[in-house]
Design brief:
alpha/beta, TIM Barrel, six-stranded parallel beta sheet, three-stranded parallel beta sheet, 10 helices, 9 strands, 16% strand, globular, Aldolase_TIM, lyase, Aldlse_KDPG_KHG, KDPG/KHG_AS_2, 2-dehydro-3-deoxy-phosphogluconate aldolase
């Protein structure tokens, strides 16, 4: 899982409020060879969206904004293959370890990262990246935490994401700048397709 996401380098963060858009979403992800999607628990449609996107087996679908054990269990029951949390949530981490499921706990400080590593976790979410120092902070944190990889989200954009990816401590970047529902509502999703195509091209050319 970690190797695959490091190859793709992009983790789209998606909040579903319209399930009719998911077929087009899956099609565009596959077309652009970005087979990862993080469906957030920021809407009541998170579980059915995870289930629908997982059905074909073409995508690696994860659940994001997972703050409770109940949400983690619902996500897994509906096909989630990884879990992303906004913070270090012990009961979620312990459940994922029991299920042998990759989990990316949200961290922002040395204390957060240390707590995550005590569970044997070697890849952490860094959130919100822009508020907590961005790339400069990650460079500083990767000194003492030389064996930890980071997945920054929050404040990442098309203008700065390649700067992050040039750092060896960063496995990938995540965010809604990659894909969002609004991009699918116009012109049969063509803006979403074009945006993702441009991001993939930037990675190849950086």
């Amino acid at each position: 899982m970690y190797k695959k996401i490091e190859e793709v380098k992009l983790l789209p963060l998606y909040t579903a409020t319209d399930l009719t858009l998911l077929d087009r979403l899956e099609e565009i992800l596959i077309k652009n060879e970005v087979r990862f999607i993080e469906v957030t628990f920021r809407s009541k449609l998170a579980a059915p969206a995870i289930k629908k996107l997982s059905a074909s087996g073409e995508l690696i679908v994860g659940a994001g904004t997972v703050r409770t054990l109940e949400e983690a269990k619902i996500a897994v029951e509906n096909g989630a293959q990884f879990i992303v949390s906004p913070a270090v949530v012990p009961e979620v981490i312990e459940y994922c370890i029991q299920q042998e499921l990759p989990v990316f706990p949200g961290t922002a400080t040395p204390g957060d990262i240390q707590r995550a590593t005590e569970y044997g976790i070697k890849v952490v979410k860094f959130f919100p990246a822009d508020i907590y120092g961005g790339l400069k902070a990650i460079k500083a944190l990767s000194g003492p935490f030389y064996d930890v990889k980071f997945l920054p989200t929050g404040g990442i954009s098309q203008e700065n994401f390649t700067d992050y990816l040039q750092n060896d401590s960063i496995i990938a970047v995540g965010g809604s700048f990659i894909l969002s529902e609004d991009m699918f509502r116009e012109d049969e999703g063509k803006p979403a397709d074009e945006n993702l195509r441009q991001l993939v091209s930037q990675i190849k050319n950086s």
